[in-house]
Design goal:
377 residues; alpha+beta; Nucleoside Triphosphate Pyrophosphohydrolase; 8 strands; ribonucleoprotein; NUDIX_hydrolase-like_dom_sf; mitochondrion
Length: 377
């Protein structure tokens, strides 16, 4: 702080008259201007009417504190369980990279892995004749032949599709080509051979009973049934828990902060009191990820218990609330499921919804506050 303001305050305390001989002209003009503003404000203040509260009485006369209702809303989400679907470009690119690697890699040295004339060697010759390459997931492609340069597929080809790759791997593991072969001794019939001695019955064809378990589909039964209460739907997306309150509005679980608890503690308590104890959840951080403010059409007078510190006793406080301020806390569900049987807030239903599904369930004002804090994945 400069010495000029200190000098002015000392002169004012001592009662010294302020003039050109005591302070500079600039400070004198500023002080006189502020004095006129303060005098005008003091003259208008007595004439101002006090705001009327409920029953025609002002909040000041009633001794009520004007404030907003402070609410905490845990945003419980289920993270993605699967990777997202690849785009058409990504599928074609990955297939191109696999075939390019097949061209650049050295050819497989067959006799290093398989002894000549053994069943494993015969099986290898059968497979290489059908698919022309050692790789099992790049389709029929000869990287060292005359058309090895043609490593791209045409538009509409299904070779790059994940379903086609999965089926090719399963067929190769099950050995379906061997089932349809007709081996006689050690002779090669239609490119398929089973080694053995016919006199001992080793060359007799037998039905191959090997059947591998198929991978589960990415589309679950809950997706087909549109079961919004199931956590097994939209497994490549983030799902958020929404509840329907007593007024019929969909929103995140929320409640007032009690006592001297922190935002983190309030979020943990609200999750248990609203969705039950059958969920294993984790509140991610101590800071909110979003904020929502709603002003009431008219102020409401409420009473609640407040505890300034954990050691101090709780006291009943009455205040005039102008609206609500909701702070959203990020949380994850690790296991379990929501159960509203013992919900103490009057919530009747719940749903697990993706981001774009939430917009149609909540009010436009609520959506405008929460849409930027929600993610699709």
């Amino acid at each position: 702080m400069s010495s000029a303001p200190k000098r002015i305050r000392q002169l004012a305390i001592n009662g010294t008259a302020l003039g050109r001989d005591t302070i500079c002209r600039t400070c004198l003009i500023r002080i006189s201007r502020q004095s006129r503003q303060f005098a005008a404000a003091a003259a208008v203040a007595p004439a101002a009417e006090e705001p009327a509260g409920q029953n025609g009485q002002s909040a000041q006369n009633k001794g009520l504190q004007k404030a907003y209702r402070l609410l905490i809303a845990p945003v419980v989400s289920r993270p993605p369980m699967l990777t997202r679907e690849s785009t058409s470009f990504e599928k074609a690119y990955y297939l191109y990279q696999k075939r390019l690697n097949e061209r650049l890699a050295l050819p497989l040295t067959r006799y290093f892995y398989y002894k000549k004339g053994t069943p494993a060697d015969v099986e290898w010759k059968r497979k290489i004749k059908s698919r022309q390459t050692a790789a099992r997931d790049i389709g029929v492609y000869n990287a060292y032949g005359e058309f090895g340069w043609n490593d791209e597929v045409l538009l509409g080809d299904k070779t790059a599709e994940p379903d086609a790759t999965r089926d090719a791997l399963i067929r190769d593991a099950e050995g379906r080509d061997i089932v349809n072969a007709k081996p006689v001794d050690d002779k090669d019939v239609a490119g398929a051979v089973i080694a053995g001695d016919a006199a001992q019955g080793e060359a007799t064809q037998k039905e191959l009973q090997l059947q591998l378990e198929r991978p589960a589909s990415r589309v679950a039964k809950a997706d087909n049934d549109n079961d919004t209460k199931s956590l097994s739907r939209k497994m490549d997306r983030i799902l958020y828990l929404l509840v329907k309150n007593a007024e019929g509005r969909w929103r995140f679980p929320e409640d007032r902060m009690l006592g001297a608890e922190s935002l983190y503690q309030a979020a943990e308590r609200i999750i248990v009191q609203s969705a039950g104890i059958n969920m294993n959840t984790w509140v991610v951080g101590n800071h909110p990820i979003g904020h929502f403010q709603y002003n009431y059409p008219s102020p409401k007078t409420t009473k609640f218990q407040r505890q300034r510190t954990p050691e101090s006793p709780a006291e009943e406080v009455e205040q005039e609330e102008q609206g609500e301020k909701v702070f959203f806390m990020k949380a994850r569900i690790l296991a379990g499921q929501a159960d509203l049987a013992k919900n103490i807030y009057g919530d009747s239903e719940y749903q697990w919804l993706a981001k774009e599904e939430i917009e149609s369930q909540v009010t436009p004002q609520y959506w405008s506050y929460i849409r930027n804090m929600l993610t699709e994945r």
